[in-house]
Amino acid sequence: MHIQDILAPSQPSLSFEFFPPRHPAAWEDLYQAIRELEPLQPSFVSVTYGAGGGTRELTHDLVVRITKTTSIPPVPHLTCVGHSEQEVLEILARYAAAGVSNILALRGDPPKDRPNYDWSESGFRYASDLVRFIKKFNDSGVHPDPRGFGIAVAGFPEGHPATPNRVDEMDFLKAKVDEGADYICTQLFFDNHDFFDFRDRCSLAGIHVPIIAGVMPVSSIQGMKRMAELAAGARYPAKLLRALDRAKSNPESVERVGIHYAAEQCAGLLDGGVDGIHFYTLNKSHATREIYHSLGMAASV
């Protein structure tokens, strides 16, 4: 299903993110999580793409399996790093042939073993270049949907780590939207004020596509520290830190605090008229199902 149809209804979309495991033993755990989450009827699920395209085939295989075995529309991530135009063209053609309708276009991160990565090695320097290329592919008529792929891009309510100047940041985001992005999915954040301020700044910048908020419940103290490293230095409000500090001696209590905080965060976003909420699941179902129950959206699941 094309993202324009998914986001057309008046109620907010609710969606999940998965990543393709690198180890065979973790695949069954992922499929079990998908089976447990499918009854929640998510609007779509996204599938990540490793740094430098490191999980290219795993991402493709997971997306195709979701397409064939579930009723959930998948949205595969696609990054610029390390890919020529021909390689991206082949990836898009494979997804079109498999009936995939949407793509999340990202600049992406270079491989960790290449800190001095030369961007001239890629066919695309910026995510806006990739969006433009996908739109060109759409115009070719290869995709079975005459609209071609629906296109998502990333937004950063707390600021993009590579763009300290937040005025420039909005210009870069608008460039992606102007090239043809259908919606924005944000990086995770923990303070709703950051999201609503980001949404207002998008409006002031002339960005008028749906903005979906990324939410990830804290599940452990170690996981929180790792999130801060991976998610551009995610900011943790003092309210959340105090609650986690009270619970830190009990891992189960830490998880309950994280779920409770995320549920309150989601309720505030829904009350604030958010276009959608995207749950970063870490390939687990428990926290997301608990949040659904807390919000009264999964009484029978």
What do these coordinates show?
The structure is a single chain. With 301 residues, the protein is an alpha/beta fold. It has a single domain (3-294), classed as TIM Barrel (Alpha-Beta Barrel). It has 11 helices and 8 strands. It has an 8-stranded parallel β-barrel, surrounded by 4 helices. α5 runs parallel beside α6. The two termini are 24 Å apart.
Break the fold down into its secondary structure elements and pairings.
Blueprint: H1 3-6, E1 13-18, H2 25-37, E2 44-47, H3 56-69, E3 74-79, H4 85-97, E4 102-106, H5 127-139, E5 150-155, H6 166-178, E6 183-188, H7 192-204, E7 211-215, H8 221-230, H9 238-247, H10 251-271, E8 276-280, H11 286-294
Parallel strand pairs: 1-2, 1-8, 2-3, 3-4, 4-5, 5-6, 6-7, 7-8
Helix pairs in contact: 5-6, 9-10, 10-11
Total domain units: 1
**Average pLDDT number:** 90
Strand content: 5-15%
Count the strands?
8
Shape descriptor reads: globular
Uncertain residue ranges: none
CATH topology-level fold name = TIM Barrel
The gyration radius over C-alpha positions equals 19 Å
The largest sheet is: 8 strands, parallel, barrel
Assign the CATH architecture. Answer: Alpha-Beta Barrel
Helix content: 40-55%
Q: How many helices in DSSP terms?
A: 11
Strand order of the largest sheet: 1-2-3-4-5-6-7-8
Class by SSE composition:
alpha/beta
Q: Roughly how many Å apart are the termini?
A: 24 Å
Helices and strands, in N-to-C order?
HEHEHEHEHEHEHEHHHEH
CATH class: Alpha Beta
